[in-house]
Amino acid sequence: MLYSTHRTMIWTIVLLFCGLLVLYLIASTRSRLKNEPPLDKGLIPWLGHALEFGKDAAKFLTRMKKKHGDIFTVRVAGFYVTVLMDPNSYDAVLQDTVSLDFSRYAQVLMQRIFSVRLPGYDPATQRTWMGKHFEREGLTHLNTMMYLNIYTLLSSPEILQNSQDWKKEGLFSFCYRLLFRAGYLTLFGKEHSNNSGEVTTVYREFRKFDNLLAKIARSTLKSGEKKTAGEVREQLWDLLSMQTAEESDSWQQSYRRFLQEEGADEETQRRAMLLQLWTTQCNAGPAAFWFLGFLLTNPDAMNAVMREITSFSLPAGTQQRLPLDKLQATPVFDSALSETLRLTAAATISREVLQDKTLYMADGREYRLRRGDRVCIFPFLSPQMDPEIHQDPEKFKYDRFLNADGTEKTDFYRRGRMLKYYTMPWGAGKNVCVGRHFAVSTIKQFVFMVLTCLDLELCDPNMPMPPVNASRYGFGMLQPDGDLDIRYRLKTQSPACWWSGASTESDYAL
Ligand code: HEM
């Protein structure tokens, strides 16, 4: 008797659950309405295309573009995301700050990745504060500090020990390690005298965190990884809060004061440091890796860049310093850098739709966007890898952004229309990367110094570039899956040791 009552109860619960599930699926089923972009929900209820998206966003979105054209809506883990792939129509998203919002989703990610919620978070106030440091005089000061730190690192015994012997290392590890160190010392203060391994420890923990970042952002960590992520985060919060009075003028301390003024408590300030460490350090090292890697695997490009650098050498006997105007006029170098970023900068630009909106495309089409959905631009696929814009888009052509007369090429077309956005490594519009000038200057200083100071070679001259780690699409600069083995030693005769005489701030401003 008791047994049959028990069975009835279990069946009632199962039926109730199934009923609720069916009701939920019916309620959450969405169909395409008139004037809405093509809708692709995927086969899996709720999850939709989340798995394919997370595995390789570039491959998935290329498939969707082939199927639906340059605008479509996909379901990803319960959200509906409209993806726009026509660069001529990007301003309809980038310039709309009334119906489309940047900050809400940014806050969700901040909370999820860095466990931090900034009180009264206002991206505009933060941007204005950042601008003070990363533009004009603030930028010149940071460039000087960065220059000195890169120079000190490259001339340290760690690099130049027995300077005539070749040292072997992976290029990615070489670039990321050194630029992280230089960037950390520039923005987060000096290494403490009683703890000289501090930056090395911060870097080691940072790399562990960075390796898990995509999974943290997508909430797909396995249980062991979840534990590691939590521990590493704690460890980095602790390491970043070890400050001394002598560092009161550092960028980090200034950021702390900014947070205090914004009403952030001690714990929030402590946690926000990791957010800033990642924002400021995660892109330059990988960018320098791709740049040097493309040069090493493309001898034509390396020769052209070296010709430009050596043309700066001053006659023997004069001080070997590169004049400021020459530092700025490096068209070959700049084109090769733009080409590198075209191939490897892969951030997604996401906005939340705050109210129903009509999106007007450049070719006259109009689409309705629903409140609560997201709009997403993925510049890596278009314009950067779009074969309608760039011929052989997968190839590295160092002179793609050069005119025949050596000036910068800026005219690119899609379907007969000249493009405003033909490459977008820094995003665009109101939220364009505020650190872009600092990043370019850092990469330029580092690559110039490496190429003029060191003999740098591939261990195997036929080694191709490693493939990209496909799980990182959407998170800024791509990273390789594997590394490129290099060997280096101090040049016996440095042809253009232009930095040796620089001494004032303006000498270093790239
Ligand atoms: C190769 C290097 C870099 C690349 C490719 C890059 C790329 C980007 C992109 C695409 C965005 C826009 C995201 C969006 O619209 O949603 C962005 C924003 C931002 N970047 Fe960078 N970045 C780089 C280096 C840096 C550096 C070195 C710093 C600081 C030192 C920095 C600080 C920022 C900040 C603070 C924002 C947010 C801007 C805002 O909220 O309005 N970036 N970056």
Automatic annotation (TrEMBL):
Substrate binds at residues 112, 118, 283, 374. Pfam families: p450 (PF00067). Its EC number is 4.2.1.152, 5.3.99.4. Its cofactor is heme. Its main location: endoplasmic reticulum. Heme binds at residue 433. It is found in: Endoplasmic reticulum membrane. It comes from the Eukaryota. One of its GO terms (biological process) is prostaglandin biosynthetic process. Belongs to the cytochrome P450 family. This is Prostacyclin synthase. It comes from Albula goreensis.
